[in-house]
Amino acid sequence: MSKIRVMIVEDSAVVRLLLQHIIGSDDRFEIVYLAESAEDALRALERVKPDVISLDIRLPGMNGLDATLHIMSTNPMPIVVVAASVEGSELNIAMNALRAGAVGVVEKPVGTSHDDYETVAKHLCNQLAIMSQVKVVKQARRGLNYGSSAPAAPTPPPAPAPRQAVPKVVGAVGLVASTGGPNALSRVLSELPKTFPAPIFLVQHITPSFLEGFVSWLDGLTELSVKIADPGEMPLPGFVYLPPMDRHLEVRQGRLWHSRAEEVCNQRPSGTVLFQSMAREYGPTAVAALLTGMGADGAEGLLAMRKAGAYTIAEDASTCVVYGMPAAAVQLGAASEVLPLPNVARRLIELVGTRRRETVA
Known about the structure:
By secondary structure, the chain is α/β, with parallel strands linked by helices. It contains eleven helices and 14 strands.
């Protein structure tokens, strides 16, 4: 079995050496190039043909976001962003790199004497191995807009709704995503108006230390208010609620709660746990969408929601970064409808808006 070819892009000689040691010590990998800058990496890219890139964010000259934009619009390949800071401008660049097509973000490893060294190093290697298998697609650079909440490209109208009857009142909307999720979620949430008449519950599989920055980043991209749910909080329309790190998010008796119950599909938070609680709490008065992601988390929960009468959406394979979780849902018959990503927000507005108008009428 051939080894995974890795390019490391890092301007610090000390960190570059550390990454070389960590990745090079893993038998799964072959380091094919060490780049000191994005420009250096771009010049070597076609020649060395890596399977995956470990990309620093703060680089001299072209930064990690600009490098991601260039690579994904010209010679797309899996990029794992390596960020030293989980707050401020560096995190914002990292999140926008995910929106531009990078497939993962991990913490930059610290010295070998640090308490978290082994954990961070193992996570980095595992992410590189997993993401090297992702089949990325070319991104249209001109369509990206990081300074506003406008959609990245004109949204085609959704396909006609299937015949499944929809309830007359909406209780809540659930969104679940994993690999490729930051890009997908930013697209969906940025298209929802501040008057969206239902609370949204969101699970995104992400490195826990990046969670608060991810929430802040999302909050800046949408007219809705994005926050970590407080235990016992009553969900309100116009808000997007996420669980705190390493906690499941559940709805019980109309309120939001956290749980440290066992992982589901190796995930905590789990989309299945959220969706199952929504099925119990809201039954047919809920809508849910399962977006891009590796594995099968969320699929069983989406099936529980559909069985309870909820309207359920799975992202179509044509727009998924990884068609794993939605595929599992489709195979189970859990999706009322399968939609490409550009149609998801429009459908949510249509469904929720239709229910609100019918309720008023």
